Amino acid sequence: MTTGHPELVAAIASEIKALGPIPFARFMELALYHPQFGYYMRAPEGTGERIGWQGDYYTSSDVHPILGQALARQAEQIDRLLGQPDPFTVVEMGPGKGLLAKHFLSACAPSFRQRLRYVLIDRSPAMRDMQRRNLSEWLNEPGLIAWEDHLNELAPSSITGLLFSNELVDAFPVHRVQVTDGRTEELHVDYRDGRFIECLKPLSAVALATQLQHLHHDWPEGYRTEVNLQALDWTKQVAQRMKRGFVLTIDYGHTAHDLYGPERKNGTFLCYSRHSANESPFLEIGVQDMTAHVDFSSLAAAGEPHGLHVTGFTNQLSFLMGLGVETMVAELEPESPEFRAAIHLLKPNGMGGTFKVLVQHKGVECAALDGLKYKPFWGSALTGLESNVTA
Ligand SMILES: C[S@@+](CC[C@H](N)C(=O)[O-])C[C@H]1O[C@@H](n2cnc3c(N)ncnc32)[C@H](O)[C@@H]1O
């Protein structure tokens, strides 16, 4: 069955009629980011929202400000390590509603904020409007906040400071592959008799074949998974724009060893609608979110040739602990809604463990950042060369 935003369904169907079956990644790109009708690109209907308690899913900044507060602490330490440059640039990519930026800016020391240039990059005009509304209290501070639609609008080597994202990379369209008759084939989307259907075809891109070789996979018959090629390109673009500083990527995901292991034989692709998950991308097209877990090993490897080196890898609980979350939580009234919300972000079997934090650096020495004080991963877990131990 096919349901969804009628104009979007028609636009995808007409592309398939013209070109034949399209790779799943192209279908996902159109469903989420079609310039007029895509899920993220349209303003939500009525008084609804995409992200939040009234939306399809929530993120850490909907729960409690501690992540934004901890990021501000981490940025202030990085600022000291870089010798307090003027300006210190923070680039936040995929800021969604802009709540993390709001919490970050509210937590910064005024003397740091005076040198701060906070750039928000989001490809969605609807999200950029929402960010402007949520950041209205800061808009009168000259030079503090700027917006760009795309990363490539920043000049090469223009960032001295910190680039961070929360749940950006899991929102990139993914290629989906499946092992069939001993070969790895790619899921494509066809349109027949008024319905979208899946079909398997040979790999659509050389880059996909190359990435599959890098993964050294030995998957059994029927194994299905995702490859996020856009994440690799994004890492390269980020590296090229960094001059001196750190890149901090927060998302749900795993090392390649864990993500592509035998226990995830159906992959991690999911759709979210009104806080419930399903595996049906052809339902509610353009009305529900689509996402897949992030392969942090490949992000780490993609940065290396461009001078972006791994500083460390941890999970959200350990990251927040390293930045003093215990003191922050101790200041909250025990058992108050705020206290329970903050704890929600720390749960080892919930957001605290599922969300990982990858830190990379360029143009500076590898530094002992506070957010990396506690590490649930050992040795070269990210490269999959040694077994890793999770908290
Ligand atoms: C899952 S939301 C995350 C929102 C926010 N970071 C949070 O924590 O609530 C993903 C956001 O990334 C944006 N996005 C997706 N691809 C992007 C890209 N290539 N460049 C900039 N923004 C992008 C989407 O428009 C959306 O606002």
What would your notes on this structure say?
- Strands 2, 3, 4, 5, 10, 14, 15 and 16 form an eight-stranded mixed sheet that branches. Strands 1, 6, 7, 8 and 9 form a five-stranded antiparallel sheet that branches. A three-stranded antiparallel sheet has the order 12-11-13, with no helix packed on it.
- The protein has helices at residues 6-19, 24-33, 60-63, 66-81, 99-107, 110-115, 125-134, 206-214, 229-241, 256-259, 296-303, 316-322, 325-330, 337-344, 351-354; strands at 22-23, 88-93, 116-121, 145-148, 159-166, 175-180, 183-192, 195-201, 224-227, 242-254, 270-273, 276-278, 289-291, 294-295, 309-315, 355-362.
- Helices cover 33% and strands 24% of the residues.
- Mean pLDDT is 93; it is low at 385-391.
- It has a single domain, classed as Rossmann fold (3-Layer(aba) Sandwich), CATH 3.40.50.12710.
- The N and C termini lie far apart (42 Å).
- With 391 residues, it is α/β, with parallel strands linked by helices.
- The chain is built from 15 helices and 16 strands.
- S-adenosylmethionine binds next to loops.
- The site of S-adenosylmethionine has 19 residues, from loops.
- Report the principal-axis shape: globular
The residue fraction in helices comes out at 25-40%
Bound molecules: S-adenosylmethionine
Number of helical elements: 15
- Quick one: how many beta strands? 16
The CATH class name reads Alpha Beta
CATH topology: Rossmann fold
Mean pLDDT: 93
Question: CATH architecture, please?
Answer: 3-Layer(aba) Sandwich
Which spans have pLDDT < 50 for at least 5 consecutive residues?
385-391
Main β-sheet: number of strands, strand sense, barrel status? 8 strands, mixed
The whole-angstrom Rg is 21 Å
- Domains, number: 1
What gap, in angstroms, lies between the N and C termini? 42 Å
Structural class by SSE content: alpha/beta
The amount of beta strand, in percent, is 15-25%
